[in-house]
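2024-03-11 09:14:02 DEBUG pipeline.ingest accepted 1 chain
2024-03-11 09:14:02 DEBUG pipeline.ingest length=568
2024-03-11 09:14:03 DEBUG pipeline.predict start
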Amino acid sequence: MSFVKGKCCFLWKCIVKKLENNHGAIDEQYAHLKNYAEELRRINPGSTVKIKCSAGLEGPLFERMYVCFNASKRAFVQSCRPLIGLDGCFLKGMYAGHLFSAIGKDENNQMMPIAFAVVEAKTKESWDWFIDMLLADFNGIQHKRWAFILYQQKGLVNTIAATSEHVEHRVCVKHLYGNWRKRHGGEHLKEALWISVRATTDPEFKKAMENLKKLSEPAWKEMTELPIGMWSRAGYSTYTCCDLQVNNICEAFNSAILEYREYPIISLFKGLKFYLTSRIVRLRDYMLRYEGDICPKIAKIMDKNKRDADGWSPNWHGDRDYSSFSVGNGIDKKWDITGIPCPHVIACMRFNNQNPDDFVAHWKQTFLDCYSNLMLPSNGPKLWPEVVGDPILPPKMRRAPGRRKKLRRKTNDEPKKPSGAGGMVKRNQETVRCRRCKELGHNQRTCGGKTGVDRNLPKGGNKTGADKGKGKGKAVATGASKKAKKHTQTGGSQAGGSHAAVVLQGGGSNVGGTKTVTQTVTQSATKSAPVTDGKHVTVGEATVFVPRKIRTTGTKRKVDEIGTICQQ
């Protein structure tokens, strides 16, 4: 929506008025932002809430705000895998901006929101500020090697590359392939690329890259310019215990908070806090009801690996520790990368009479420890502590020319209008059905008084000769009779004189291959003028009533064929 004259301006004012009625004045929320930040720090000790302002002529102007609750911070650092997904989505409010988010992955392979920030735009400076705040929070609790997965955004890629050398950098392979396929398209190249992406060992990766080189050397050369640790499992480190290759955890978070993205600044953070609180309670209660020691999604993966391991016979090499085996189907690093025993390892564990579930790194108790950290509720605005200082003013408007967009740009391989809520519903019926005659192939508007028998015409139109009109005269005559009778009762006249109406009545007999039609004709005193209203035509000295939309193969009949129509 945009601030333009006319209907768009009126609709925008209505939306702003509705938001102000529900959440208060939009501009006044910035004036109370310092008090709200102090309330969050007071009620949730250990949480990080930072506000950055820029100098203005009338006072400080809002620029950025970073929030990381202590419950989310400690849950991720102490119980989750050290893999962080980074992404940003645009806000739909009056002052626009972007929402940056850092999302982790819990023991059940579900997203775990860690921190978020409202910034003015996606720039290298804003990403540097967000990453610095994030790493400062993590290192204040526990020093670890962190891994980041993100899209190929120029500012974000440069920011991660400039961080510590101990930080692992992964890119979303789906986004990487979306840019790569613009220059190297084709199903064969796509299949060859994804084989190299999913390879877990160096020999398997090299073989896949050689196949890609045979198909297209420019495509192979472009992929070799990227470090293998950014896009292939063969180069992933094992300390993360996660083989995630797409940044769908951030997409899931952006979709979950969609309704809050058009709220004012304080209402936005309240909505995010409410979502995180309700999510913690819901997942914790769900896991308490779950019976089992391994998280449910991990248990499904283990069941599949156990089935795949059936029929494999490992070969023990005689060491006393029973740790050296060889499997006929080969070996890979999936256990090291994911923390879940692969089928090869499960076959060796069965040889040693060991339970494969004892070697899983994702336990139910770890999941419960992750969601045992709670967020405490905050007071209302009247009980917020007063912070001394100049009130914060709203930021400057950053708006591109043209109408404001509220939907993201979709790639070429995404459906433009997906089926379901908010999209186009797919039609399941084969064709339309008329409500008047209950036949398929047309609707009530184009029925024209005919029944389904009249519309089931053979290919090429009506038959000629003795078979013309067999089984059809009665239906047409009845429809014409009703309309002619109605017209006669209304006493309509044209051209200032009376006219004769030819009314077709059903019945009649076939004599010598021709059908006789009983006609009731009221002779005209004077010869009537030709009628052009589309309902009556003059044939000789009589005016014949014809339905308005009589047709056979989709075209109107000519006036000189009216006699033939009447006989049909």
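2024-03-11 09:14:41 DEBUG pipeline.report The chain has a mean pLDDT of 76.
2024-03-11 09:14:41 DEBUG pipeline.predict end
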